[in-house]
Design a protein that fits this description.
heterodimer, A: mainly alpha, elongated, B: mainly alpha
Chain lengths: ~100, ~300
């Protein structure tokens, strides 16, 4: 067991946890955070595989760097959508039921 | 060091679970910020200092600011409690993820990936740091389109209509003012250093842009709290000045101007002449830094609406 193995398992667990959040939690903020955790887990797998090379492979590093910026833009848009749902709904609870 | 890795992995899983499980949204957000910080430690352990820098500035810092600002605009910050079934079902992702992870273990063996290709051509790329070479030379396309995605997200956020009112607390006292006076110049200085450093060490346009965006956001908060001494009319004129709007688009424009010039000179689209690659990359990086900083700050301050 080296650190790559540890982080491969951690990444897989985090991905499934994020998916659990997206599926099982009702509030849209939890779903957004869940998607972001899934994304971070994918980055973790990428970087763990990149660390197999000596020195670490630069291509996945660059891809993850791009991915972090794309993830924050997606998150900003998702939060704006959520605020809109909360504003339009009557109970001011940002859940999927409210958006109908 | 294996103990550090194990502790880090365990903590990060617990923090992520708590972030999704708790019904208190404020706690969720704080847990997510902690998650981002722990993640940057993981990136350091995986020999990826560039991504660690970006994660700590963007994934923990800017995302945290964005989430906290959103939280202040929601009426209710409590979600429904997780049901007993949901609580029990939390075991499923842990087991399933663990099983998936174990199935990946057969892949843990030395694999060179693309690092040989990267290192063999690095002398022609114009920079010495492999990650910067990939970002701005080999895969410049990806970086250009990523700037386009940032623009797109900003435009889409703006299309959602006027934001809810800014519910930031009008902070009293001088701590924020003194802090920002100290931090804003320091952030600008560090951003410049990180940008310059990117040619031969971890750093570059993304990290520098995120640092600069933090400086903008800090200045914005001071101004919103009506603690700043600048005249709002002057700031409004400054923000809507055509030169600032050009900087906004600068990253994309620089990429496509340089890309088309490469096409005309016969190096292919987004190809650089090896002799000038270093200078061209620096020019693109400077333009991209300002674009990234302005757009990231606008995502926080509310879709670039009129300064009020």
């Amino acid at each position: 067991m080296n650190e790559i193995a540890i982080y491969l398992i951690t990444g897989s667990v985090l991905f499934c946890l994020g998916l659990w959040g997206v599926v099982m939690r009702e509030h849209l903020l939890h779903k957004i955070l869940g998607v972001n955790i899934m994304g971070s887990a994918a980055f973790m797998l990428f970087l763990a595989f990149a660390a197999r090379a000596e020195p670490a492979d630069a291509v996945p590093h660059a891809l993850v760097l791009t991915g972090i910026v794309v993830a924050i833009s997606a998150m900003a848009l998702a939060l704006a959508l959520m605020k809109r749902v909360a504003k339009e709904s009557e109970q001011h609870q940002a859940t999927l039921e409210d958006s109908q | 060091m294996i103990i550090v890795d194990l502790l880090l992995a365990l903590t990060i899983v617990l923090v992520a679970a708590r972030c999704l499980y708790t019904s208190n949204l404020a706690e969720s957000v704080v847990m997510f910020i902690v998650f981002g910080l722990l993640l940057s430690l993981v990136w350091v352990r995986l020999y990826a200092p560039d991504t660690a820098l970006a994660e700590v500035a963007i994934g923990a810092g800017l995302a945290g600011a964005l989430l906290l600002a959103t939280l202040s605009q929601l009426h209710l910050t409590h979600a429904a409690k997780a049901t007993a079934m949901a609580r029990i079902s939390l075991i499923i992702p842990v087991l399933l993820g663990g099983a998936l992870g174990v199935s990946l273990l057969s892949l843990v063996q030395p694999a060179p990936g693309l690092s040989d290709l990267v290192m063999n051509n690095i002398t022609q790329s114009g920079v010495e740091h492999p990650v910067t070479a990939v970002l701005l030379n080999y895969r410049a396309w990806d970086t250009a389109l990523e700037l386009a995605i940032l623009m797109w997200a900003w435009a889409a956020q703006r299309a959602l209509g006027p934001n809810l009112a800014w519910h930031g607390v009008r902070l009293q006292g001088l701590v924020l003012v003194y802090f920002s006076r100290l931090m804003v110049p320091l952030l600008a200085l560090v951003a410049g250093y990180v940008l310059w450093q990117g040619a031969y060490a971890p750093g570059g346009a993304f990290q520098a842009g995120a640092l600069l965006a933090t400086a903008f956001i800090l200045a914005f908060i001071v101004q919103q709290a009506q603690l700043g001494q600048a005249n709002p009319a002057v700031i409004r004129r400054f923000i809507h000045h055509w030169a600032v709007k050009l900087l906004w688009l600068g990253g994309l424009l620089a990429f496509f101007v340089v890309g088309l010039a490469g096409l005309l000179l016969g190096y292919g689209f987004m190809g650089y002449a090896p002799a000038y690659a270093g200078a061209l990359i620096l020019a693109i990086e400077i333009a991209a830094t300002f674009s990234i900083a302005l757009i990231l700050a606008a995502l926080f301050t509310g879709e670039g609406r009129r300064y009020e």
